[in-house]
Amino acid sequence: MIKNVADIMNPDMNDEGQQQAALLASALPFLRRYAGDTIVVKYGGHAMGKDHLSSAFGRDIALLKLVGINPIVVHGGGPQISAMLGRLEIASRFVDGLRVTDQAAIDVIEMVLSGSVNKQVADLINRAGALAVGISGKDGGLLQAKRLLHRSRDASQEPVDLGFVGEPVKIDPRVLYSLLGSGLIPVIAPIGVGEKGETYNINADTAAGAIAGSVNASRLLMLTDVAGVLDETGKLIPELTAEEAQRRIADGSISGGMIPKVETCLAAVKAGASAAVILDGRVPHACLLELFTHKGSGTLIRAS
């Protein structure tokens, strides 16, 4: 690793140092492209569960801030929630992969997401040299939500009451602008607030997409446990327009759990984000590979 500028300037430095200097120089056009821009990153999956990946993630987000980019992090925490509910002997029930959330469960979910997980993610970034502040979507009325109406995926299409599971109805980004303007990195737990003050658990992908649209982010980066959108042969599709993505959903070439992720990207782009990327969070430094290399790292979705 380069320790200081002298390492770069030293003509006798080793091959590794020369390679690192070349990498820094090659990143310049991308640094200029994104200077001053806002990047929203959805953090979850394996990237969040493996120590070496989480440490690399913290360093990458700190680096983005230090080079003049404004990152906003939205995190999940499903495994941590399940572990705490199990420890407290609160049974979990799922419908179509969605957790049914009663009052006892939402109290635990808020405690886990807004408490331990949120502060752990902020600490990863702080230890890497930047200043991150953990908040939830309830702070400053950031994520205003309503109860999610879910219809069963079986033939009946019956409405299912998921309890305190919500979806965003309005984003008030003023608290984000205040933090960014103070040189801070917002780290957001996807907990929303209802019209009557009720607490809602919001899918982290959905929350990140809504926030990215509200702040007109240059990029929404969605870290997942897959390489991106794959074609019929299993090969990564590097870029899709909104029309192409919708057509692939309609013809079934985008299916299963990839559909809601692509739909989140489409919603973010429609709401004001310049582009959204589905990328593999299992790859170290996936965010940097996407932003600072010509090839990128996942599937980019843009309006046209």
Automatic annotation (TrEMBL):
InterPro entries attached to this UniProt entry: AceGlu_kinase-like_sf (IPR036393), AcgluKinase_fam (IPR004662), ArgB (IPR037528), Asp/Glu/Uridylate_kinase (IPR001048), Glu/AcGlu_kinase (IPR001057), NAGK-C (IPR041727)
Pathway it works in: Amino-acid biosynthesis; L-arginine biosynthesis; N(2)-acetyl-L-ornithine from L-glutamate: step 2/4
Record: residues binding substrate: G77, G78, R99, N201
Annotated compartments: Cytoplasm
One GO biological process term: L-arginine biosynthetic process via ornithine
Site (Transition state stabilizer) location in chain: K42, K261
Aspartate/glutamate/uridylate kinase domain boundaries: 38-279
Catalytic activity: N-acetyl-L-glutamate + ATP = N-acetyl-L-glutamyl 5-phosphate + ADP
Annotated keywords: Amino-acid biosynthesis, Arginine biosynthesis, ATP-binding, Cytoplasm, Kinase, Nucleotide-binding, Transferase
UniProt EC number: 2.7.2.8
GO cellular component: cytoplasm
SUPFAM superfamilies in UniProt: Carbamate kinase-like
Pfam families registered for this protein in UniProt: AA_kinase
GO molecular function, one term: acetylglutamate kinase activity
Main location: cytoplasm
Enzyme class: transferase
Entry similarity comment: Belongs to the acetylglutamate kinase family. ArgB subfamily.
Alphabetical list of HAMAP family matching this protein: ArgB (MF_00082)
Described function: Catalyzes the ATP-dependent phosphorylation of N-acetyl-L-glutamate.
Name of this protein: Acetylglutamate kinase
Source species of the chain: Swaminathania salitolerans
